[in-house]
Amino acid sequence: MKTVSSSVELCVSCMEKHKVDVVQIEEHETYKNKEVGFIATYEYCSNTKELFETENMIRANSLAMKDAYRGEVGLLKAEDIIGIRKKYGISQKDFSEILDWGKATITRYENHQVQDRAHDDILRKINSDPKWLMEMLNRAKGRLSQKAYAKYHHNISKEYRLQGDHYLRESIYASYANYEDDTLTGCMELNLDKVIEVINYFAKKVNNLHMVKLMKMLWYSDTFNHKRYGHSITGLAYRALKMGAVPEGYEQIVLLEGVSYEVAIYDDIAYRFKPVPGFKIKNLSDKDIESIDISISTLGDLITAEIVSLMHEERAYQETPSNQLIPYTFSKDLKVM
Ligand SMILES: [Zn+2]
User: Fold this and answer.
1) Residue 47 CA, ligand 1 centroid: distance in Å
2) How far apart are the CA of 2 and the centre of ligand 1, in A?
3) Angle formed by the axes of helices 130-139 and 92-99, nearest 10°
4) Distance from C-alpha of 173 to C-alpha of 190, rounded to nearest angstrom
5) In the predicted model, what is the mean pLDDT of the chain?
């Protein structure tokens, strides 16, 4: 028996006012044919040597026992269910409504009733699949208030975007895991937070920053930094394509949360990058920024075709076979900076 707190109060066991301890005891009970161990909380009267439970303790002890059972058989615990619901900011009543379960189902699961396996599976799926929850939200639209629907729609969309961004990052990092050779990433591990900051920094300082120009400026600043300090800024690897250097995974990189662009249609689709509102530098060092600033002052005012032709004169580009990755070892031969 472990005492966790004590206070002087009217003791309901001996009906006298004295110091009553709150104690914790490990208990074992059989629930649904399973023996479960859990920590129960009681008040203890030192006069009668009696343990007793307040209303709240009765509820909490029952929940502790059921959570222990849930743990034993691999079901979500009450706090897990509360966590899933709160992640999407949905009320207990509306959550039951969206799931098309009985009105008080979620409230019961969060308080005293152990969910069945089928409902447990649905809750787990909701946790990992906001898109699916969105479908259910839309199905329940007519049964929710407009205000509640709008709020849930916003929250679920946000989770969906965050999750998408998480997978996007994972897949970019996974593709870079193949580049064990330091000369391909400039002796740096890929750092997407830095990549996003460099793109925003360029977007803030360079007018009309289109895709091809952005890619060349990324290569020049990474390669220039490698020339000065022996390592790239971002850890990006670049491939020698017809228009010059292109970062590996750029199709995914431009879709990352924190990268923003407008799409304009000329002869072709053009992306013009712009800084995201409230952009701040958190990951780039002063030296990184110095290299980037020099790239901007050298190349920032050039039109795309001019940068492309400069790139074509670089030894790094000329000596790398078409469609192959450009080794950073060529940084020492960099011409324009
Ligand atoms: Zn007492």
Assistant:
1) 5
2) 18
3) 90
4) 7
5) 94
User: What's the CA-to-centroid distance between 20 and ligand 1, angstroms?
Assistant: 7
Q: Is pLDDT larger for residue 265 or for residue 256?
A: 256
The neighbouring-strand residues paired with 332 are none
Cβ contact 246:254 at 8 Å: no
Residue 284 to residues 198, 273, 290: CA-CA distances in angstroms? 8, 19, 10
CA 252 to chain centre: 16
d(CA 43, ligand 1 centre) in Å: 9
Q: Please tell me the predicted confidence (pLDDT) of residue 267.
A: 66
Question: Distance between CA 2 and CA 4 in Å, rounded?
Answer: 6
Closest to 288 in 3D by CA, of 245, 225, 241, 208: 225
- SS3 of 58, please? helix
How many Å lie between the centroid of ligand 1 and the Cα of residue 4? Answer: 17
Q: What average pLDDT does this structure show over 264-288? A: 89
70 CA from centroid of ligand 1 (Å): 35
**261 CA → ligand 1 middle, Å:** 71
